[in-house]
Write a structure and sequence with these properties.
There is one protein chain. The chain is 48% helix and 14% strand. It has 273 residues and is of the alpha+beta class. The chain folds into two domains: 7-157, Four Helix Bundle (Hemerythrin (Met), subunit A); 177-266, Nonspecific Lipid-transfer Protein, Chain A. A five-stranded mixed sheet has the order 5-4-3-6-7. A two-stranded antiparallel ribbon has the order 1-2.
Length: 273
């Protein structure tokens, strides 16, 4: 079933997110722009180039004619589509990319503010699948930008911006993948009852039952067989493939129930492409 997203709050969150990114980058030094981040081959500047390029594409700008065939870490067409913008801006100074980002996101806001709820509900391709809505696509855009913002914060040793509205929206984008994470990525066996607890500005508890397939449920008949608990922002980094989970086991990540299965779960949370 296609996802219906309320246009007003979604556009507000995008505006806040784009503003947070612009504020974050304001005043960065050349050394900060050149700092490597957790994503292969990407510096702090490359992260901004990616965010700028995606919004420019959505604003109707032609895709740069750039060869990225020499890059071996690109695993699919979506990754290659995003990489051409980064490659195209390799020699552009960081402050100039920031100006482009501010310009294109303002244009995107004008476009989004002119849309109706019906426009947001219209069928659309998304990175999560072809049979979705434009609103879901925009929720993914918020999630993606929120993740890249925190890639930059982590690279520069800056504190997380765990604003509750932004965190809640990112969780909304993560929740649909929990069955896939538990059943396919972590390979929890049939009969498993998995409890995932997140701690932070938006606490959450998710229960996933594994039968013929793994699915989120409202309650278990019996106690969980497997459980993990961790800060919400760490959960984002792990589900986004941004960080090695093993150093966090027994520290930020608390294992409950079957320790072997809980470790298997905690170390196989990545689902993003």
């Amino acid at each position: 079933m296609a996802t219906i997203v309320d246009i007003g709050p979604a556009v507000d969150l995008l505006e806040q997110e784009w503003g947070a990114v612009a504020d974050l980058y304001a005043g960065f030094t050349e050394e900060q722009y050149a700092t490597p981040t957790c994503l292969p081959g990407w510096t702090v500047k490359d992260q901004l180039a990616h965010m700028t390029g995606v919004e420019a594409m959505l604003d109707g700008a032609p895709t740069p004619d750039v060869d990225v065939s020499h890059l071996t870490h690109l695993r699919n067409d979506v990754a290659r589509m995003g990489e051409v913008w980064v490659e195209d801006m390799r020699r552009v100074p960081g402050p100039e990319i920031l100006d482009r980002f501010r310009d294109v996101t303002q244009k995107r806001l004008v476009t989004l503010r002119a849309m109706s709820q019906s426009d947001f509900d219209a069928p659309s391709w998304t990175p999560a699948g072809p049979d979705e809505t434009y609103g879901r696509f925009m929720r993914i855009r918020h999630y993606d930008t929120f993740m890249h913002e925190h890639d930059v914060r982590a690279a520069l040793g800056l504190a997380d911006r765990d604003e509750p509205g932004a965190v809640r929206s990112a969780l909304d984008e993560t929740e649909p993948a929990l069955g896939y994470i538990v059943g396919r990525k972590a390979s929890m066996p049939a009969g498993s009852r998995v409890r995932i607890e997140l701690i932070g500005s938006v606490p959450a508890v998710y229960l996933v039952e594994v039968g013929d397939r793994a699915q989120v449920v409202e309650e278990f008949i019996d106690d969980p067989t497997v459980g993990i608990s961790m800060p919400t922002m760490l959960f984002f980094r792990l589900t986004g493939g941004r960080e090695d989970p093993f150093p966090h086991i027994g520290n930020d990540i608390v294992l409950l129930g079957d320790e072997v299965a809980a470790t298997q779960l905690a170390t196989h949370l990545t689902f993003t492409i």
